[in-house]
Amino acid sequence: MSFSTIIQTIRDATANSGTATSAEKAQLVEACNGLVTALETPEQKLTSLCFGPVRALIIRLGIDIHLFDVATAALKKGESLNMQQLSDETKCEALLIRRLIRVLIDMNHFREVDQDVFQPLPEVALFSTTSPISQAMIQFTNTLQHMFQLPAYFEARGYQSPTDAFDGPFQFVTGTKLHVFEWLASNPRYQHANDVTMSLRTKLASQEKWFDIYPLEQHLAATPPSETFLVDVGGGVGHHSIALKERYTQLPGKIVVQDIAPVIDGISSMPEGIEAMTHDFFEPQPCRNAKIYFVGHILHDWPDKQAKTILENIRNAMAPESVLLLDEPLLPERDVTFLPAVMDLVMMSQFSSLERTEHQFRELLDSVGLELVKVWESSNTMSGQSIIEVRRRR
């Protein structure tokens, strides 16, 4: 195949990408990334490595000065913006705007239609203040600050994975003894960004519900209505439980959503059949003998020391027939792709914790008298989601 044919094929794929399925888009991205890797010179690779993070920082600065809010408003009106308008509306020096917008033009957020006149492109709306994507950028650019200091942390502490949730890379960089969650509570802007980012996962249309993966029906008839059917441990404001109740309106027994007081106190109401309860999962579990204990994306926030305490408190409350379900990221034992591998490092830098493999989960559970029964994997191979079924060891 000639190079001109290859180039035209890529252009055709770009023009028709809107009709592709999620799986097809992922395959196209993978193929294009492979092509870029094969074609890049060493100098280009070095440039990408060194200056790639600058793009995220420029986006963050644009969010901070409300540049994307101004641009989104103009986009909706079909208008362009001149430099003076941008400076006046963002309260930002015109020279600084010009320096930032050069990068944003290269990133296809703006088109320069005349000298110092810029047309906003659809991408700008992703980073307006009301967009959850903008909050995710605030969250992860803050995280990047800590990750950039990992070389200094390991040089000072020795090259060993951190294991203390209260004395790890995050504390080293910020100079605090607070846990990340305590620090967030004292920094409202970052707390909000974190909350929005975490809730974004549950709002993604492609994200399956845990009960789409795990065969819940087997437990429905076995639970008397007078008993607790499910305890949502560390369940926040109840996203998982509310979705479950909407799917199974006639669930036997009640659902209990547990979290710490500031979270529970912020809940104004719950659907019938769901109870909100104040509980710290580092304390003994008050709901005993429930049919199901559900833990969603919590254990990966904690190194083994604290994870064992969480699990022990649940185990001590479980009846012999109780089931513990873990909706947690599960790393493959080998051939880990980029994003899961990086998220493992994010968890290390922020929480001194880790994303675990099935083997690591088995060891962790076994250490507290629990047994990994089965890993239920999503039928959607693109999601990588799985539910870990756990019971008390007999």
TrEMBL record:
Q: O-methyltransferase C-terminal domain: which residues?
A: 229-369
Q: Is Ribosomal protein included in the keywords of this UniProt record? A: no
Database matches in InterPro entries: COMT-like (IPR016461), COMT_C (IPR001077), SAM-dependent_MTases_sf (IPR029063), WH-like_DNA-bd_sf (IPR036388), WH_DNA-bd_sf (IPR036390)
In the UniProt record, the signal sequence range is: none
Q: Where is the active site?
A: 300 (proton acceptor)
Offer one example of a GO biological process linked to this entry.
methylation
Name any one GO molecular function: O-methyltransferase activity
Protein name per the record: S-adenosyl-L-methionine-dependent methyltransferase
Species source reads Lophiostoma macrostomum CBS 122681
Protein keywords: Methyltransferase, S-adenosyl-L-methionine, Transferase
Looking up Pfam families in the UniProt record yields: Methyltransf_2 (PF00891)
